[in-house]
Amino acid sequence: MSLVSRKRLLFWGFGVSAVLFVGSLALWLPLGWSRTGFPPASDLIWPIVLYAMAHGARMLRLGLLLGSIRLRKLLGLYLYTAACSAVIPFKLGELVRVNEFAWQQSGSIARGVVIVWVERVFDMVALGAMILVILTRTDVEVAPIAPVLWLSTAFVLATLCFFFVLPEQLATLNLHVIRTYRDEKAVRILRVLETINDLSQLARPLLSGRMLTLAFVTLFIWCFELLALGLLTRDLNSWSPLLRLVSQFADIIIHRPAHAASNDALVSVFDQWKIQILCVPGIIALILFRKWRRAPSQPEGLTR
Description:
Blueprint: H1 3-35, H2 41-66, H3 71-87, H4 93-104, H5 109-135, H6 146-168, H7 170-180, H8 183-207, H9 211-233, H10 240-254, H11 265-292
Helix pairs in contact: 1-4, 1-11, 2-9, 3-4, 3-11, 4-5, 5-6, 5-8, 6-8, 7-8, 9-10
C-alpha cells in the first residue's frame, strides 16, 4: 500500500473514530449524568489531582515512544485518544489509538500497533507486580483477580517470544520454508515471517535507551492511580485499595457487573467524574485535529 493510500485510510479511520466517540458520548451522557453526584469538594479534589497526574505521566510515556512531536500536538493527541478509550465500548478505543499514532508516525500503521503494544506491556508488567504483592497476603481471595494474573503473564510471555525469541530464529525458519514449500504457499509464509521481522525491528528502537525511563514512568502512573483510590476510600493503611484497583481490571476482562457500578458510592461518583474530565478536553482536541490533519505529519521535535 502506498503512503498516500495509507494516509487516506488513516483519515477515514479518524472520521470513523470521531463518529464513534461522539455517538458513544451521546449514549453515555443520560446514564452517566444521572450517576454523577456532587460530594464535598474536599473528598474529590486530591483524587482528581492525582488522577490528572497519572494521565500526565501517561502522556509523558507516550511522548517518549512517539519521539519527534510538538508538545501541543502531543497534548491534543493524548487527550483525544484517552477520551475515546474511556467512552467507546468493547475496547475499540485501542483501535483509535493505533490509527492516531500511525498518522503521527507518517502513516506507519505498524509503528502505531507497536507503540500501543509496548504501552500495554508495561501496564501488564505493573499489574502483574501488584498481583504478586497481593499474593503474599494469606487473607486475600485470589479467584476474583486470577483473570488479570493469567492475562498479564500470557501477554508478557507472548511479547517476549514475538519480539525477541522468534526474530532470532527467522533465518532458520526462512531456510526451512524455502526447502520445504513451493509456489504460492512458500511466498505467503515468507511474507508473514517478513512482517514479524519488521514489527520486531520497530519495537527495539522504541525501547533502546528508554527501558528504565519507561519503567519508572509506568511506576509513577500506577502509584498515582493507587493513591487516588486510597484517598477516595479513606483506606491507606491496608491492602484494600491495591486489591480494588486490580479487581477493576478483572471486572473489565470478564465483564463482571461490578465494573458498571461500584459498591462504594464515592468511588462510583468518581468514576463518572473521570469520564467527564477526559471527555471535555477530548472534544476540544477533536475540533483542533481538523486543523492539524491538514498539515503533513513530519518529524518536529518535542517543542512548543
